[in-house]
Amino acid sequence: MKPNQQILRRSWLFSAMAAVAQAATRQIETYRKENVLGTSLEFQVIGAGAKAFDACLAEVERLRSILSTYDKTSALSQWQQRGETGPVPAEISELLDHYAHWKKRSEGAISSSIGQKLDVNALGKSFIVERAIDAALNAAPEAGGMLLNIGGDIAVRGGTWRIGVADPLRWHENAEPVDEFELRSGAVTTSGGYERGASHLIDPRTGLTASGALSATVLAADSVTANALSTALCVLDETAGRHLVQSTKGAACLVLRLDGTRWQSGSFNPVFRAVAAPAWPKNQQLTITLTLKAIEGYRVRRPYVAVWAEDPAGKLVRNITVWTEKRRWLPDLFEWWKKSGSAGGGSSVTRATRPPGRYQLLWDGLDDAGQPLPAGKYRIVVESNREHGSYARESGVIDCGATPSKVMLKENGEFEAVELSYGPGGQAA
Q1: I need a surface site. Which of 93, 128, 250, 351 has the fewest CB within 10 A?
Q2: What is the sign, positive or negative, of the torsion defined by CA atoms of 124, 126, 129, 134?
Q3: Is residue 305 within 8 Å of residue 45, measured between CB atoms?
Q4: Rg value, the chain, Cα
């Protein structure tokens, strides 16, 4: 199963290290895997990590083999080849029942078909998220809490986790969210057509581009409900959308209208963030496009990565992002560790609708203290290391001044050629 090509959804998951009450005595373990259901998976658990993660992955794969519309050998594909006749696994019937329920409740805004084609990928991914996190909990009932994020569909069982809502106008992996909130149980999903363009958000009732909202974030008791509501809110008009959310027990939403204004319903309780204005020319940003290579094999792990900016004197001025599953591995990012020590990094970020392994990062001209830096030349460094793998580092200087510019960092064994693009909205001319 790959991410739905019609409805685009993404959510940001920020560091949970300081948000969990049990963390004082039990360590949070983080596991990540690319190429899962056509996107990325992140699993965080307080205690009992390995067996919970193994159970989670096993359930994801079991359900993928049943529900995938891209695998010709899946049970769903075989059923379609038979003309959608004959017996099917219970999971297919249950998923189609979900679609029938939400098609009725949303007055057709949710549908398992686009035109004449069966497409169950949207609710299908959420369906798998729910089953997979429950499988992990059953395998490790002693865990103090866990969070599963597959392509932006997030489910939580226990603990307290800080979630950020992506800004649909600045959707990069590490950009500041428009809001943050805490999630102790249930699920959250964000839908919107902002990343790939509005033409990718289709109203199944008409086959035309949907025009309900720029983005919609929904909290609900389970992932399927959250996903169905967030998708419907991008298709329905505001009056119908409000009624749908308000008539769903325990649901809450934050919706950004097409003009950038917002409305919300239910107990969302976001925490607004104040961000300093950069000193760079107005609207100028640096976008870093980093694609990790797909390296498969026994014991192959996702690499840990640091990306940072240095001033002309070689001083580290901004930790753009640092990814690691366990902090004890950070010293293996040799150059980054030498320059920054244990400061910075450690946050966990993900987005939904992108190819697995492909990340876009944003630098807005602020330093690590949130203070504006002057326009000028900066060196961008990308460093990665992999357990049971290889070390890689590339860097280049880019002029962050009055005119757009672009620099390419060389490809190596761990990641593709990295594009540094400076200009309005982060895009070079």
Answers
A1: 93
A2: negative
A3: no
A4: 21
**Predicted confidence (pLDDT) per residue in 92-119, tens digit:** 999 999 999 999 999 999 999 876 788 8
* CA atoms lying within 13 Å on the CB side of residue 203: 15
pLDDT tens digits for 402-412? 899 999 999 99
3-state SS, residue 127: helix
Taking the C-alpha atoms of residue 416 and residue 293, their distance in angstroms, rounded to an integer, is 6
Q: How far apart are CA 26 and CA 168, in angstroms?
A: 35
pLDDT for 129-162, tens place per residue?
A: 999 999 999 999 999 899 999 988 999 998 888 8
Q: Helices 49-67 and 90-105, interaxial angle, to 10°?
A: 80
**Where would I find the H helices in 107-206?**
121-139
**DSSP assignment string, 107-124:** TTSS-SEETTEE--HHHH
| Residue carrying structure tokens 């990814």 | 323
Domains in the chain, ordered, with CATH? 12-265 (3.10.520.10), 284-424 (2.60.40)
Q: Which residues contact 216 (CB under 8 A, 6 or more apart)?
A: 190, 191, 192, 229, 230, 231, 233, 234, 241, 253, 254, 255, 256
